[in-house]
Design a protein that fits this description.
Layout: H1 2-26, H2 36-40, H3 43-52, H4 55-66, E1 69-73, E2 76-79, H5 85-88, H6 119-130, H7 135-140, H8 142-157, E3 164-167, H9 168-185, H10 199-217, H11 219-225, H12 230-236, H13 238-264, H14 280-283, H15 286-297, H16 299-309, H17 323-326, H18 330-345, H19 365-370, H20 384-398, E4 406-408, H21 413-416, E5 418-422, E6 424-427, E7 435-438
Antiparallel strand pairs: 1-2, 3-7, 4-7, 5-6
Helix pairs in contact: 8-9, 8-20, 9-10, 10-11, 10-13, 12-13, 15-16, 15-18
The structure holds protoporphyrin IX containing FE.
């Protein structure tokens, strides 16, 4: 018995040594610079990701040390060169893009559009919903966004003069959740209606983001979690349980929708009930918290934004300004662009230093070229139009003159900055949240 085990162990060691030699010397990527350990084993990325939660930072350090092209894992090449961006992120007309779900495949969402590997299958899944997320369709159903903004605003108005401190990130997550679920599942979860904007929803999303790195690297864990009853899972690890519950809800929704579609067959728009439930995780709006934070942190920015919004929001709440009108406002547009830009790139900056001014007037055209918060090409963000519309309408209501007397309440940059790579950026573990006082 001992002899058999010894043989197996020896064979396993020899196999792994050969694999590492292959990766280091025979792989087509063997000449790409980068740490040898990262080229030899994916456990390098796993360790940095799970232990320090900062693989994007480690990657930036690799680029600093080895140059614009590095090999961060045995199978990947990372290119840090804005001039090359449009060569990589292309539409199907230029090149078909297969996607290596790699570490994301452990999330147990193989059917989600975003992690569909094969180009043709991805196109097949994306095409029917693409129209649904198009600008004309989002504009057509914009009244749903207006209704949610009215509801959000009315609840905030009730806090006027009370000195109450509210976790505004809970409110934003509820707002985004209500809109996305309505849009994708044709159901209304009424998260904004709940007491304190249903904080459980925000907590569940944050808990899900926390377990993403674990499932990303140790894929069999998420498969295992599928067989464990949610109650037991909750006792063992509430965050994993939350993730499982979220997936179950998503699957339940999809089943319901499939049955609904089978019954109703062909109807237009929302009635078509296409679902991208798993993409709710992506659609949460850390950008709203970030923009609101930097506007509140700088009285000059706030004053200028309020002045610009004065006329267009004069009829609010009876008349909610339209997305198409709001995006013509240069300063509001600049604030949103700055939020999206910083949200994606600021994790290595010691302080948030947003400057909406940099988007006004004659600015360097390279800024527009490098502005890709939704990425480009055949796999760019499907919900981009919905994301823009949600941001414009919500921020206009929030910063209309005479609207809300808000100030930051014990929240600092470190509570907002997304430094945690849960597939979607999230603030540090233990963040106090985005707390705002209403006077
Ligand atoms: C400000 C808000 C948003 C931002 C900044 C954002 C950003 C992104 C980015 C960067 C990607 C590409 C991810 C990657 O390649 O790994 C993406 C993909 C995606 N996003 Fe968004 N997103 C936002 C809102 C939304 C919304 C509201 C939805 C839908 C309800 C959505 C649905 C999707 C989907 C389905 C994909 C995958 C597309 C594909 O693979 O074909 N996003 N998003």
């Amino acid at each position: 018995m001992g002899g058999v085990l010894g043989c197996l162990l020896t064979a396993w060691i020899i196999y792994n040594v050969l694999v590492v030699i292959g990766r280091l010397y025979l792989s087509p990527l063997s000449k790409i610079p980068g740490p040898r350990l990262a080229a030899a084993t994916p456990w390098y990325e796993t360790f940095v990701d799970l232990w320090y939660n900062n693989f994007p930072d480690a990657l930036a350090d690799m680029h600093k040390k080895y140059g614009p092209i590095v090999r961060p894992t045995p199978w990947e090449v990372s290119i840090n060169d804005p001039d090359y961006y449009n060569e990589v992120y292309v539409t199907a007309g230029k090149r078909r893009t297969n996607y290596d779900a790699g570490s994301r495949s452990g999330l147990g969402m193989q059917d989600a559009i975003a992690i569909t590997k094969d180009h043709d299958t991805h196109e097949l899944r994306r095409k029917p919903v693409a129209n649904f997320f198009s600008r004309p369709n989002v504009t057509r159903v914009e009244s749903r966004i207006s209704d949610e903004v009215r509801l959000l605003d009315a609840k905030l108005c009730r806090l006027k003069g009370t000195g109450s401190i509210l976790s505004l990130d809970h409110a934003f997550t509820a707002y985004a959740g209500d809109i996305v679920v309505q849009f994708t599942c044709a159901e209304h979860p009424r998260l904004l209606d709940g007491p304190d904007f249903t904080p459980q929803w925000h907590k569940s999303i944050c808990g899900d983001l926390n377990v993403v790195p674990l499932f990303r690297h140790i894929g069999w864990l998420s498969n295992l979690a599928r067989f464990v009853p949610v109650g037991l899972l909750r006792a063992l690890n509430p965050e994993v349980a939350g993730f499982r519950l979220f997936t179950l809800v998503g699957e339940g929704q999809i089943d319901k929708i499939k049955k609904g579609v089978a019954r109703e067959d062909e109807k237009e728009g929302l009635e078509k009930k296409q679902s991208v439930f798993h993409d709710i995780l992506r659609s949460d709006l850390p950008t709203s918290s970030l923009i609101t934070y930097f506007v509140l942190a700088d009285p000059e920015v706030k004053k200028r934004l309020e002045e610009e919004l004065k006329d267009i929001t004069a009829g609010f709440p009876e008349v909610v300004p339209r997305w198409a009108e709001l995006e013509k406002l240069p300063y509001l547009q600049a604030c949103i662009k700055e939020g999206l830009r910083i949200n994606r790139f600021f994790r290595r900056n010691p302080r948030i230093s947003p400057d909406p001014e940099c988007w006004i007037g004659d600015y360097d055209p390279r800024m527009s070229r490098n502005f890709v918060p939704f990425t480009k090409g055949s796999r760019n963000c499907l919900g981009m139009n919905l994301g823009w519309a949600e941001l414009y309408v919500c921020l206009a209501a929030l910063f209309r003159p005479g609207g809300h007397n808000m100030s930051l309440a014990g929240t600092d940059e470190s509570d907002i900055v997304p430094i945690f790579d849960g597939d979607v950026g999230a603030p540090k573990r233990g963040s106090k949240g985005f707390n705002v006082r209403f006077d």
